[in-house]
Amino acid sequence: MSSCELLSANAAADALAAGDLTSEQLVETLLARIERTDARLGAFVAVYADEARAAARAADLARRAGHSVGRFHGVPIALKDLIDLEGRITTGGSKVWEARVSETTATLARRLVAAGIIVLGKTRTVEFAMGAWGTNRHMGTPWNPWDLAVHRAPGGSSSGSGVAVGARLAPWAIGSDTGGSVRIPSAWNGLTGLKVTFGRVSCHGVLPLAHTLDTPGPMCRTVEDAADLYQLIQGPDPLDPATLNLPDGDSRTGIDRGIDRGVAGMRLARMPEHEREGVDAEMLSAYDEALAVLSDLGAAVVDVELPRRFVPMGDLVGRIIAAEGHVWVGEYIDDDTLPVDDDVRPRIRPGGNMSAGEYIRVQRERAAVKREFDEALAGVDALLTPAVRTAAPVVASIDQSTTAAIFTRPFNLIDYCALVVPNGLSGGGLPLSLQIACGGFEEGTALRIGLAYQRATDWHARVPPGLDE
User: Is 0.90 topped by the overall pTM?
Assistant: First the structure.
């Protein structure tokens, strides 16, 4: 593996600025790596090789002429196949939509292109983005690059984005998170992933699953990259009313804007003892060690009493996703003659039977849970949990009637933001992960904690072995 392939987005930007690397060299190296490895890994559903090469040549010319449009001009990115690019096919992971041509370009994609970032291609997703394991019966399940001998779950629903960044096919990617779909693939592929507060990033041009929960977000190698990518895509958008009239919150997230302040004096809550039940011993050991690292850096790790258990909170999220998802894709879910994934149908189909009254009651309970958590966590800066209960399981062993989103869904329910960072490796060499959950619009706080942790550890720098053998 060349050093060029190992560069984070920020490291690539530094090399471009210094003249040590050209965008054309970077893009060609990544395209060659995709050509060499992705037939096996299956991260991409489409690669825009010719267009990426042309954009890279243009970026190099602009930089030499003194007309760079920003720090990341010429740096490539991968986009989840829910994100519309006008004139391109966006399948949403469904055979039903395999010829669906986008009529618009997503706002977040427009912002990336305006910053000079080059779209390498679209990455695979669970059908209709409804599934935490990352599997897709008809369009293909990407192969987790951390175990090339056994097909392990890539995490979902942003499965291809997780594998693309984890396998060093792209320096960073965009996923979307409705119940954990940025965080779970980030956790299982050894990445840093940011679930943003609902409304902070525009969903215009992003195929919906649950319109009160969907949150596009960064999937990266480092906290620095996640902070910068978040800064590029966040902000008000007249085409998405959910992004308007929001509190300013903690959206100033660049390294020079406040997240590089350490954690001394912060109060960080550990999860209750009963939530440790069902979590693998290796995951708990890595979690406890991460808390110790943050304590050594000056944070106070404290106990709090939470008002609800995580599993029932996740069940509420599942009911909301089913109801709202059925509005968008129910006609395909309920038509048994169509090639819809049989693992996805039962996750959405019950939503068609939810009455308006029941839906309103669920949303009222959601609001009550949020108030309860806001009160319980008022005295702390973040609640820390493992990102998932286990390292990536073998695909053939997965019970598709269950979910991997035990620790992630609760924070979608209460409109919090959450960052996941690598915090260890299992005995089998698989990534383990820590989740840092903060109140709504406190992305900068989560990033600040994650940055301090990554500056004290090197788990985020680990690379899957054997890809080039």
Answer: yes
